[in-house]
Amino acid sequence: MSNKISLTRYLVEQQRVHGHIPSQLRLLIEVVARACKSVSQAVNKGALGGVLGSAETENVQGEMQKKLDIIANEVLIEANEWGGHLAAMASEEMEGIYVVPNRYPKGEYLLLFDPLDGSSNIDVNVSIGTIFSVLKMPEGDRGVDEGDFLQPGRQQVAAGYCVYGPQTTLVLTVGDGVAMFTLDREQGSFVLTQENVRIPEDTKEFAINMSNMRHWDAPVRRYIDECLQGKDGPRGKDFNMRWIASMVADVHRILTRGGIFMYPWDKREPDKPGKLRLMYEANPMSWLVEQAGGAATNGRQRILDIQPRKLHERVSVILGSKNEVERVTGYHGA
Ligand code: P6P
């Protein structure tokens, strides 16, 4: 008897044993996972599938879309719209929310996603991924609108990502720690390969785009300067740097071996709080990091406590090993 635990069995146990998730949420997560398997197949085809390169269109963020951005978005919409679990969806690639069509039953959940994060890496064969977040539809029998999505990240009921790298790995939390599932392509199923993921509280590795250094705020510059001074400086140890330019890949490394990830506010766009998106990048990643014992802040407050004002709101992100996050901003974690 194989001792492999499938995603389905893990979720059934979360539902039955821990009473952590209702069946509708379990089924929703399984649909998202199946959609990620389809995205993985498309990503893995690369040039052979004619899916590389630009789609010659811009998304709501004003960013040039890759063909795979659009493909991944369509896969996630089509996989999730008919199941009866959702009232609506929101995507980095769509300006407004996507209300489940009346021909399908509506459910009590809201699904938000960045269908393909890190798409600047697609054409150079570097890891990319899908990030997702699940909220509950607020009570009331009225129709769903964008305001229903504007909930702080602490109200998420599920969050995760699927990283399309040397392995395709689904990383998930439903509030009972973080579990990792590796896609077994022979079986076509996600298999539990790690649970109770813990981020070391200290690290010697930071992730930031150093080319933006002249634009940062003083606390971030001070923190990085101290790291660069190494063991001769106030930190008393040498640091290493990694920057993959795929948040999914950088966060996966931090969940796996610790570290700090920073995309801080910078003065290039002073009226924007940051580059990354709160609802479907920072919130799901912050919950995962906190569930694994790390911390996540925008430099002034816990990311999960931020009250969103608009769907595509941006945010400054400093997350990872708790003691490092605290050192940057004096932040004391959740
Ligand atoms: P830069 C990818 O476009 C993304 O949203 C994150 O995944 C990544 O961490 C960041 O932007 C990379 O930004 O400015 O270094 O290209």
Automatic annotation (TrEMBL):
<dbReference type="InterPro" id="IPR028343">
    <property type="entry name" value="FBPtase"/>
</dbReference>
<dbReference type="InterPro" id="IPR000146">
    <property type="entry name" value="FBPase_class-1"/>
</dbReference>
<dbReference type="Pfam" id="PF18913">
    <property type="entry name" value="FBPase_C"/>
</dbReference>
<feature type="domain" description="Fructose-1-6-bisphosphatase class I N-terminal">
    <location>
        <begin position="6"/>
        <end position="195"/>
    </location>
</feature>
<keyword id="KW-0963">Cytoplasm</keyword>
<keyword id="KW-0479">Metal-binding</keyword>
<dbReference type="InterPro" id="IPR044015">
    <property type="entry name" value="FBPase_C_dom"/>
</dbReference>
<keyword id="KW-0119">Carbohydrate metabolism</keyword>
<feature type="domain" description="Fructose-1-6-bisphosphatase class 1 C-terminal">
    <location>
        <begin position="199"/>
        <end position="331"/>
    </location>
</feature>
<keyword id="KW-0378">Hydrolase</keyword>
<keyword id="KW-0460">Magnesium</keyword>
<dbReference type="GO" id="GO:0042132">
    <property type="term" value="F:fructose 1,6-bisphosphate 1-phosphatase activity"/>
</dbReference>
<feature type="binding site">
    <location>
        <position position="209"/>
    </location>
    <ligand>
        <name>substrate</name>
    </ligand>
</feature>
<feature type="binding site">
    <location>
        <position position="114"/>
    </location>
    <ligand>
        <name>Mg(2+) 2</name>
    </ligand>
</feature>
<dbReference type="Pfam" id="PF00316">
    <property type="entry name" value="FBPase"/>
</dbReference>
<comment type="subunit">
    <text>Homotetramer.</text>
</comment>
<feature type="binding site">
    <location>
        <position position="116"/>
    </location>
    <ligand>
        <name>Mg(2+) 1</name>
    </ligand>
</feature>
<dbReference type="InterPro" id="IPR033391">
    <property type="entry name" value="FBPase_N"/>
</dbReference>
<feature type="binding site">
    <location>
        <position position="281"/>
    </location>
    <ligand>
        <name>Mg(2+) 2</name>
    </ligand>
</feature>
<feature type="binding site">
    <location>
        <begin position="117"/>
        <end position="120"/>
    </location>
    <ligand>
        <name>substrate</name>
    </ligand>
</feature>
<comment type="pathway">
    <text>Carbohydrate biosynthesis.</text>
</comment>
<feature type="binding site">
    <location>
        <position position="275"/>
    </location>
    <ligand>
        <name>substrate</name>
    </ligand>
</feature>
<feature type="binding site">
    <location>
        <position position="114"/>
    </location>
    <ligand>
        <name>Mg(2+) 1</name>
    </ligand>
</feature>
<comment type="similarity">
    <text>Belongs to the FBPase class 1 family.</text>
</comment>
<feature type="binding site">
    <location>
        <position position="92"/>
    </location>
    <ligand>
        <name>Mg(2+) 1</name>
    </ligand>
</feature>
<protein>
    <recommendedName>
        <fullName>Fructose-1,6-bisphosphatase class 1</fullName>
        <ecNumber>3.1.3.11</ecNumber>
    </recommendedName>
</protein>
<feature type="binding site">
    <location>
        <position position="117"/>
    </location>
    <ligand>
        <name>Mg(2+) 2</name>
    </ligand>
</feature>
